[in-house]
Request: fold
Amino acid sequence: MESREPYVLASLKIKGSASIVPIAPGVTIGGSGPTIIAGPCSIESYEQICTTAQCVKKSGAHILRGGAYKPRTSPYSFQGTGREGLKWLKMAGEESGLPIITEILDQDDLSVVCDHADIVQVGARNCQNYAMLKKLGKIRKPVVLKRGMMMTVEELLLAAEYILSGGNRNVILCERGIRTFETGTRNTLDISAVPLLKQKTHLPVIVDPSHAAGNWKLIEPLSFAAIAAGADGLMIEVHPEPEKARCDGEQSLTPARFDRLMNRVKQMGNWRLCLTV
Ligand code: PEP
Ligand code: MN
Reply:
């Protein structure tokens, strides 16, 4: 006999159909076509986030990303522009007409992040911060929950269950690569997690090839693989001048490279229909 799933609210078997998370008028994650989230790793200045917003919007992105509070390995590295950055991100979102997503790093910033962002992002490092997940269960904003680099698929679903059981039903899961013995890439994109999650949960599943690869040259093929595997969306780092980026420049696409990727992703649209039959 098949063993019982340890999660209930995240279960596809129990809910019976895939969820579509509403983000803003005309923008959803889940259901039809891949939703594309794009923008810099970190918000560096008003000009930088505005320029990026205009470029990614023109190429067809649906949501603008940008980190104001950055979880850095070294305390001496750039930590983000904080509240100032959130303000710039919000302005860039309003000017471009794109909804915005940003990471919550510290529970103390929850209300200011919710005041600015349309979607709250939980980073890989906080995916098992259960006190924070409980608080996110009480907010009204959708949450993108990024898989921790050492977490199993089941642990990810149970982390989502924390948010769902608190009352917030708008959770999107994000595969962003896990730690393996491979050193050729920053992390290893666990592509099998995508169809596996889609079989286990009704929650939308997106893929972040940027943090998985750590190298811009791998973003395009990994994006195609993610969509082919059934991902509901992509989160991609784009910077107007990657060589000058204060964080993750080596994995960031230029606006021109992002534009090329978007044209190819759009061409995959019809082919993707084969997946559903
Ligand atoms: C990010 O999206 O900028 C980020 C820090 O990602 P992750 O939490 O997946 O490392
Ligand atoms: Mn980054």
